Give the backbone structure.
Amino acid sequence: MAFINYSAREINCKLVYYGPGLCGKTTNLKHIYERTAEEAKGKMISLATETERTLFFDFLPLSLGEIRGFRTRFHLYTVPGQVFYDASRKLILKGVDGVVFVADSQEERFEANVESLENLRQNLRDQGFDPDKVPMVIQYNKRDLPNAVPLADLRESLNPDGKIQDFEAAAATGQGVFETLKHVAKLVLSDLKRLGR
Ligand SMILES: Nc1nc2c(ncn2[C@@H]2O[C@H](COP(=O)(O)OP(=O)(O)OP(=O)(O)O)[C@@H](O)[C@H]2O)c(=O)[nH]1
Ligand SMILES: [Mg+2]
């Protein structure tokens, strides 16, 4: 739930990057961190294993400009994608304002994407959200790899009615990363307006 601080004239929103293990969630945040000016970002915090798998979450606070005199601050989180960290994923979804579902385009991760999206929807329901109403975008990541599944096949299984805005990306080189972020931020802000908050 976005937190609006009237005296500081600030809107605080929470964005969560969700998706199967190794799909590239942390890589998205790293790229954003590297390409954002000092004054617009806070410290990036990563709680990871020795092999760089996210253990609990990554966190990156960002300022993304102003609307109507209010500074918009986005708190970016990633969840740990490994199946057995489900309790952490649930916790990280608390109070979420927008979700980026990062899919791994590689053929061998096709099922893992489907399961992770279903896990996201279930965890959102468990937190009291209607998964169809939470602002969300899909990012098909790792488009640079030779074993990437055709886009149409990914869409057919993850976004069959085309209702969710989706983007192709290669987070390792940065392609599509800011496009994805900008769009989810826009969705969150227009959702705030719609709800009159
Ligand atoms: N070729 C290629 N590799 C990528 C891309 N995005 C991420 N990777 C690589 O995939 C591996 C996993 O990336 P992470 O960002 O750590 O994945 P994650 O989703 O955070 O994984 P968990 O924290 O375990 O859930 C790393 O070696 C990345 O460099 C991409 O677009 N293309
Ligand atoms: Mg990670």
